[in-house]
Amino acid sequence: MEDMSAVATTIFDQNYELHRKHLKLKGLQPKTIEAYSRAIRRVGDYFDHQIEDLTEVDLLNYFSDLSETHSWSSIKLDLYGLKFYHEHVLKKPWVAPGLVQPPRSQRLPDIVSIEEAERIFRATRVLSYRVFFFTLYSLGLRLGEGLRLTVADIDGARARVHIRDAKGNKDRLVPLPTATYRLLRGFWQRHRNPVLLFPNRRGGLPGAHAASTPLDRGGVQNALRAVVESCGLKKTFRPTAFGTAMPRT
Questions:
Q1: Cα separation of 120 and 53, whole Å?
Q2: Beta partners for 172?
Q3: Of 122, 126, 109, 142, which is closest to residue 219 (Cα–Cα)?
Q4: Could you tell me the pTM of the whole model?
Q5: Which is the most buried residue in 85, 120, 181, 186, by most CB within 10 A?
Q6: Side-chain half-sphere of 196: how many Cα atoms within 13 Å?
């Protein structure tokens, strides 16, 4: 029995690595690769690493149990990860089409008014965070898009910004307001990092010039929560809530 378990684990480990290779070669985003990989690890643990011949009943039991402890977003990611595994690793058709159908719902994000945004900017004492929040709001960017901005992405002559690896792995161009350009140029003149527009703060201003990584995502989120709380605002704010552009100037 132990030998069979060891064999099953060996096969699982080999297929798991093959799964990772296929994910990378398909050009998926790192977060998607990790989510799909996590799905295989989770289902592997559930079935004692024997997932090569799962039936519809097996999957029914798995997803039913998963729904008791995880959100629909986690369930969907596990579903997509398993489908990818079946197609590219096992070379088998998906055995349970239509088994999992998450409820359709659309949550409207809290809208940040200009007045609320201005209060947040004024209350943000750390310069790098203040400039970052203003940039997200004025350009209508997601958190990750803002963190990935480089000096080369800012085209002052054409008044536009090149947003790379946006949703759907697509690039796009967005208008660059004059006020944002001036703020970004003044901010860059302070740190003068040759690549990053928002270098990390671990080395302070002296270390920002040589930093090789952007602002920490968690640090940005924590800073925003603290500022919102200090302003007494009741809405649930996230950096992505700044996706309503300010008037162009």
A1: 54
A2: 163
A3: 126
A4: 0.58
A5: 85
A6: 20
DSSP 170: -
The SS3 assignment for 147 reads helix
* SS3 label, residue 98: coil
Alpha carbons 73 and 61: distance in angstroms, whole number: 18
In tens, the pLDDT along 150-208 reads: 999 999 999 999 998 776 667 889 999 999 999 999 999 999 999 999 999 888 888 89
Answer whether 197's CB lies under 8 Å from 213's CB: no
What the block records as the tokens of 222 is 């924590």
Query: How does residue 239 score in pLDDT terms, banded at 50, 70 and 90?
Result: low
- For 113, list phi and psi in degrees, rounded to 5: -75, 165
Separation of CA 167 from chain center: 9
Please report which residue ranges of 26-126 form alpha helices under DSSP H: 30-46, 56-69, 72-85, 114-123
Q: What is the mean pLDDT of residues 111-123?
A: 84
- Per-position DSSP letters for 200-227, written without gaps between them: -STTHHHHHTT--SB--HHHHHHHHHHH
User: How far is residue 186's CA from residue 158's CA, in Å, rounded to a whole number?
Assistant: 18
Report the C-alpha gap between 231 and 233 in whole angstroms: 6
Question: Which domains are present in the chain?
Answer: 2-90 (1.10.150), 114-242 (1.10.443.10)
CA distance 7 to 54: 17
